[in-house]
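Give me structure tokens for this 53-residue protein.
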Amino acid sequence: MVMILICILAPWLAMFLRGKVVQGILCILLHITLIGWIPATIWALVVTRKEAT
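Here you go.
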């Protein structure tokens, strides 16, 4: 539940916490733009849910 909240508020942080540094940097670049925030959040949720299973 906490990880989902992190994915919504700071998707790049969720990537870094999962050990995906390069994806985290790309996620920061997406998160900087207002339009890219939604895809970055979805991407972080997908990565987080995939590793949880």
